[in-house]
Structures are given as C-alpha cells and as structure tokens.
Design a protein that fits this description.
The complex is a heterodimer.
Chain A lengths: L3 E4 H11 L4 E4 L6 H13 L3 E4 L3 H13 L4 E5 L1 H17 L3 E7 L15 H6 L9 E3 L4 H18 L2 E7 H5 L1 E4 L26 E2 L6 H22 L2 E4 L10 E4 L2 H16 L4 E6 L1 E3 L3 H10 L2 E6 L6 H8 L5 E6 L7 H18 L9 E3 L1 H10 L1
Parallel strand pairs in A: 2-3, 2-4, 4-5, 5-7, 6-7, 11-12, 11-14, 14-15, 15-16
Antiparallel strand pairs in A: 1-8, 6-13, 10-12
Chain B lengths: L31 H15 L5 E5 L7 H4 L3 E4 L5 H11 L4 E7 H7 L1 H9 L5 E6 L2 E2 L5 E2 L18 H4 L5 H5 L5 E8 L3 H19 L4 E7 L3 H4 L3 H15 L3 E5 L7
Parallel strand pairs in B: 1-2, 1-3, 3-4, 4-8, 7-8
Antiparallel strand pairs in B: 5-6, 7-9
Helix pairs in contact in B: 1-8, 4-5
Classes of the chains: A alpha/beta, B alpha/beta.
C-alpha cells in the first residue's frame, strides 16, 4: 500500500472503515467535522451505516444501540460534544458493550474556542461519566500513529467489551501527514453471542445498564474494576526518546502526550545538544497510565517536567507515579495555545539547574502557566 | 365396565409466548400489565417474537425486559428512540420497538422522539401516558392535566406558570416521516380491544417498512393518583380522554410518498 497524504480527521475515518466499523453516528463540531463528512461519503459507498444525529446525546445512544446489535460502531466529537455524551458513555460502560469514541479536543471551558487543546484529559481519563468506570484512552502524536491507534481501538474495545477513546487535539485532526493505511478488514459473518439479534432458537439476550440489587451492582463493579486492572497489566503503552541512552542515560524526564509530546521532543533534542541529559516519556495509553514505568524512572531521575496544552491535568498522574521521589515541574499553555520548543527548553534548563539542589527539600513547586501576556513581558525584559 | 369418555381439554386462554412468567413489579391496578399483554399478543399474532428487539425506558417500565420474551436493552432516560435507531439501522430486518412513559418520551426525550419520527425511522413506539412520573412517586409530567395535583404540583398544575399538556399524537402526526400515529385508551374492555388493534397496526406498519409508528395508550396510575383502581379507570374516561382524544392521527397509506 502506497503512502498518501491525509488530514488527521479523514485518516482516522478511513482507518476506522478499514478496521471494520459498520455504523457511524455523529454531530458536527469543529475541529472534528471532517471526520463526520468523510464518513457521510464513504460509509454509504460501502453499504454501511452513516447517520447524522440530532445531537451528541442521540449520537452516543445510536452507537450504544448498534453496539448492542454486535456491530463495530463509533462516534466522533470535540470537547463540548463529549460533555453531552457522558451520560451515554456511562450507560455503555455499565452495559459492557464495545464502543469507539474519537475526541478531537478544543479549548475550554464552556464553548471555549475551536483551537487545539488537551483540555479533556481529566474528562476522558478520570471521569468519562458518573460511576466507577474507565475507558481505555489512546493518545496519538502523529497522523500515522492515529491511524494505527484507531485500528487498535476497535480491537481493544471488542476484546475487553469496553469504551476506547482516541484522544487527540485539533492540530492532529487538522494537519496533513503521509500515512500508510492498513488493508480492509472483512466484516464478520457472525455476531457475538451476547448481542441483540432476536431470540430465535435461543434464550433471550438482555443488555442492562443497571442492577437493582446492591449485591448485583457490587458484583458488576468488581468485574469492571478487575477488567481495568487486567487492561492496565496488558495494554499499557508508551514511547520513550533519549532516555535509555547507553552512555548518557537521561537524568531529567520530560513527560508529554500527543501534540505536546511532539513539540517537547524538539526541545529535548535541543537540550541534549546543549549537554543536558534529558529524555522524553510519551504515554500512548493515558488510561491505563504508565505509572509503573514512571515510578521506575523516578528511582534514578533528578527531576521531571510535564508539558501539556492545559492547566496541568496529566501532571496529577505524573506526581502520583513519581511519589515525591523527585521534583515534578510543569509548563503548559491553555486557551488553544501551543507551548513552543523554546519555552520547553527554558523549562528544561531551569529544572536542570534546580533539580540537584531541590532534591532533598523542595519537592513540590510552582507550575508555569505561560500566557501571551507573560511571554511578551519576558521578551521586553530580554 | 362402562368406558370412560376421555375428558376433552381445550385451551381457551393462556399467556402469550412473548410474555414471560416473571411476577409483575407494577402496582395493583396499574395498566402497564394490560399494555404489556396487548403488545405480547400482537407480537405472537404477527409471528415476529424471534426477530423483535425491545428498548425499555427509564421509569416504571425499566423492568419491561423482564416481562417480554424478546431480546432487550434499557436506554438512558428519554433516549430510547435514538438507541432503537442505532439497532434498527444495522438490523433493518428486525422488529424494533420502544416502550416509553410520558416523562421519558414527552419531557426528557422530546428531542429523540421528534427526530426519530421526522426521519421516518422504521420502528414502533408504545407510549404509555398516565399523566405523572410513576417511578419517582407521582411528580408532574408534561402530560399532567391542568389543575391536577401531583407531588410536585401540590396545589394543582397551574397552566400560567407550569405550562399546558403536551399532546404527542397531535404533535408527531404533523411530521412527514410519521407513518402511523394513533391514540387509544385502556379504561374499558372495549377500549382495550381497540388498543390491541392499533398496536397490531403499528407493528404491521414497521413490517411493511412504511416508517415511524406510535401508539399512545391512556393509562391509569392508581397509586400516584391516590385512587382506587376502578375509580382511576373512570377518571381516564371522565378527564383524560377530553384532553387526549383517542383516534387515528396519521395513517400513511401503503406506497404513499412523504
């Protein structure tokens, strides 16, 4: 298969089609709309289901329905739309049917704006809806990786009968990169034994998002928690750059996901050229979070720097993983702004200078939230 | 010996195959049991049990999956038509129906029901209207009659501040996608027989692929109306049918285009 230039949103749509998605339901919202538009052309061509729903509430429930019928089903949206879907997500989680959600994040809170952001980390990773459940959250940093993770999303959703979210920001949704698409997966002839296909020649199948008796609901919750633990054991994924260098293993660890991870890599490479022993840890699964790996890195590292396009949402998880073994600093931007490599480089240099001194006393420190006003002030001073 | 004539047994009445033997969770005098039985009889008569899928609501009928011998799922409050759409679109040969109360369908689920009807979604809705929220203990519903006392309109529903009843058959019959919209009452045996015919007709509409079908059933809630069951049925006749006249609101003929 030849490589072709594709926009992130469209590449994800085609990847989902090749992974065998049989039904897509969605609602227009920037910056994910191209995904919906692409599906509106391609799905009918293939005799599959495309439906523009009247709202995100309806879209997620249509996904719920098609998933109950044992089909690979998905929706896509962006931050405010995901908020509306949270009711449905919780029901799908309780019902243990597979579903794939793509969230192309934009600036928040409220209507926020349509610029790229990582504002939904906590929403997707920590609290995708009411009650105790966690979807698997996959965070690509490039368009080719988004293609690969979309295929993986359907596999994992089906294997664990869980929700899998592909979480990216508007940069990745909108940018074009060369991708190699996987071959078309043939659609299965059989439906899973649990699916709603009519009680012909078998006892009826019932899919329930509730258990009235506390004993039964507790049992369901225990199973969901075991599943989460099982997923954490087998599906945790991350990528590391310049950490396990033979001669000069990293002493400072930058942690960043998605687009922020990609920008941070430029800064890390530059810092290495300046002789700073720094590497990048980029979580690919935000849930399950690679906390064991980060905890091991913390045994040796002098300090951590978390870079995000938000106020420091993953920062909380990194701090938990590091467990006070080393200082954890933060640099981030909000409101749909991107941290620049030079901002990150500056933060790495600052961490390098202070990490040795701070190790014994000042573990907790201020986080750096950059803003246009602050950067302008800094320029004026320089 | 005188030969004993074999006793000739003839079954004259039995539980429909589509109705389960589960003990009811509905209150004494509640009309859900009658409504369930009518739906189950219709399913049996049309021979569609093995390809029928139920979407149950949130409310008293949340347990409907327990009473029907068909595949089933429970939707979030009001979202049953969207969920049913998801099933029907990937399983167009199956018979998909939602069973919803008035709070579920006419209040929180207004968006979903209107758009399912507007799309002409080929599914069937059984809409049970008893003018109150039953499961939560008799609060005011969008269908509560003016002046009617409920636990959240203790002085009676005042139309000036609490609005007037939503008439779903009248509303949905305006939509081109709606193929069969009918209202029936369950307050007497004669009315119940008419309701059964309408339910059969609604499923036939779906089987023929003509589009969206809904039967609204006026039902009593003796517990939350604080009435004896027989009085409650009388109250439907004397109060509810005036606001919600039974009748056929939309019948799209076979082959009729929108």
């Amino acid at each position: 298969m030849a490589r072709q230039l594709m926009k992130g949103n469209e590449a994800i749509a085609e990847a989902a089609i090749r992974a065998g998605v049989e039904a897509y339901f969605g609602y227009p919202i920037t910056p994910q709309t191209e995904l919906l538009e692409y599906m509106s052309r391609r799905m009918p061509e293939l005799g599959r289901v495309f439906l523009q729903a009247e709202s995100e509430l309806a879209a997620i429930n249509m996904v719920y329905g098609a998933a109950c019928a044992g089909r690979r089903a998905m929706t896509s949206s962006s931050s405010p739309g995901i908020s509306l879907m949270q009711e449905g997500l919780s029901y799908i989680a309780a019902s243990e049917v597979p579903a794939v959600i793509v969230d192309v994040m934009r600036g928040g809170p409220g209507l926020g704006n349509i610029a790229p952001s990582q504002s939904d980390y906590l929403q997707m990773v920590k609290m995708a809806g009411h009650g105790d459940f966690k979807p698997i959250v996959l965070a690509p940093a490039t368009v080719p990786e988004a293609v690969q993770l979309t295929g993986l999303a359907f596999e994992l959703a089906e294997r664990y009968r869980t929700i899998v979210t592909v979480l990216l920001d508007g940069v990745l949704g909108q940018m074009m990169e060369p991708v190699e698409l996987p071959p078309m997966r043939p659609l299965p002839a059989e439906r899973p034994a649990w699916s709603l296909t009519g009680a012909g020649g078998r006892a009826k199948n019932v899919i329930l998002p509730f258990r009235m008796q506390p004993d039964d609901l507790e049992t369901l919750n225990v199973r969901l928690q075991r599943k989460i633990a099982d997923i954490a054991q087998h599906e945790t994924r991350y990528k590391e750059y310049l950490i396990d260098e033979a001669d000069e293993p990293a002493e400072l660890i930058v942690v960043a996901f998605g687009t922020a991870g990609r920008i941070a890599l430029s800064a890390v490479k530059e810092a290495r050229q300046k002789g700073i022993r720094v590497g990048l840890h980029r979580p690919i699964t935000l849930s399950p979070f690679p906390d064991k790996r980060l905890s091991r890195l913390a045994d040796e590292a002098r300090g951590f720097l978390v870079v995000e396009m938000n106020a420091g949402q993953m920062l909380e998880d990194v701090r938990l993983a590091v467990g006070g073994q080393a200082p954890v600093r933060f640099v981030g931007r909000m409101g749909g702004q991107l941290p620049m490599p030079e901002d990150i480089l500056q933060a790495i240099e600052k961490l390098d200078a202070e990490a040795g001194r701070l190790l014994d006393h000042k573990i907790e420190g201020p986080v750096t939230l950059l803003s246009t006003a602050r950067l302008q002030r800094r320029q004026t001073v320089n | 010996m005188i030969p004993v004539e074999p006793f000739a047994e003839q079954v004259v009445f039995q539980r429909p195959r589509a109705l389960s033997a589960a003990p009811t969770t509905y209150c004494p005098g509640c009309m859900h049991g009658v409504a369930h039985r009518l739906v189950a009889e219709a399913i049996d008569e049309l021979g569609i049990r093995e390809r029928t899928i139920l979407v149950a609501p949130v409310g008293c009928a949340v347990f409907a999956y327990n009473f029907f011998e068909v595949d089933g799922v429970v939707a979030p409050h009001g979202r049953a038509p969207a969920l049913a759409t998801g099933i029907k679109r990937v399983e167009p040969d199956k018979i998909v129906f939602t069973y919803q109360g008035d709070g579920d369908l006419a209040s929180i689920g207004m968006g979903e029901i209107v758009h399912a009807a507007a799309r002409g979604e080929n599914l069937t809705v059984i809409f049970v209207n008893n003018a109150v929220y039953g499961m939560t203990g008799g609060q005011m519903a969008p269908t509560t009659l003016p002046g009617m006392k409920t636990t959240s309109s203790p002085l009676g529903r005042d139309p000036r501040s609490m609005g007037r009843p939503l008439k779903m058959c009248e509303l949905l019959s305006q939509l081109d996608g709606a193929a069969y919209i009918a209202r029936r009452s369950l307050h007497s045996p004669a009315e119940i027989r008419k309701a059964k015919k309408a339910i059969v007709e609604a499923f036939k509409t779906q089987i023929a692929g003509r589009g969206f079908s809904m039967v609204e059933l006026l039902a009593s809630c003796p517990t939350n109306w604080d009435m004896k069951p027989v009085d409650a049925l009388k109250w439907i006749e004397t109060h509810m049918v005036q606001v919600y006249p039974p009748g056929d609101y939309k019948i799209k003929a076979e082959g009729q285009e929108d």
